[in-house]
């Protein structure tokens, strides 16, 4: 899939290195995308996004249908991303790994939460 999207990358090994950063190894790297699991397909999408070199990402519930290993790979990719990002998520684990600021939407307002996500989780109880 990635080789079709980026024909300017002539070397298969270079592309394998790129998608390998997102946890796709061996057979997964050369399998048709239809043969990959949902989590593996998400990893291909994240590699594709990174290759686009965007300045800003908007991620809405990006951990839906992902296993823990893929969520950790996503968190690492988010932390390595040099652009701006808005992340909407109910996944406290991901938020704890990546959030620099937390904004809360409730009662038809958006306010900045001054503490960490674990304190917010306690606040919800």
Let me know the number of strands. 4
CATH superfamily of the largest domain: P-loop containing nucleotide triphosphate hydrolases
- Please write the string of helix (H) and strand (E) elements: HHHHEHEHEEH
Q: Uncertain spans, ≥5 residues at pLDDT below 50?
A: none
Biggest sheet: strands side by side, in what order?
Answer: 1-2
Structure description:
48% of the residues lie in helices and 16% in strands. It is built from 7 helices and 4 strands. It has a two-stranded parallel ribbon with strand order 1-2. Strands 3-4 form a two-stranded antiparallel sheet. Helix 5 (68-80) links the parallel strand 1 (56-60) and strand 2 (84-88). The model has no long low-confidence stretch (mean pLDDT 87).
Q: How does the SSE layout of this entry go?
A:
Blueprint: H1 2-5, H2 12-20, H3 27-30, H4 38-52, E1 56-60, H5 68-80, E2 84-88, H6 92-98, E3 102-106, E4 109-113, H7 117-124
Helix pairs in contact: 4-5
Pfam family, one: ABC_tran
Keywords: ATP-binding, Nucleotide-binding, Repeat
Protein name: ATP-binding cassette sub-family F
Could you list some keywords that capture this structure?
single chain, 125 residues, alpha+beta, Rossmann fold, two-stranded parallel sheet, two-stranded antiparallel ribbon, 7 helices, 4 strands, elongated, repeat, nucleotide-binding
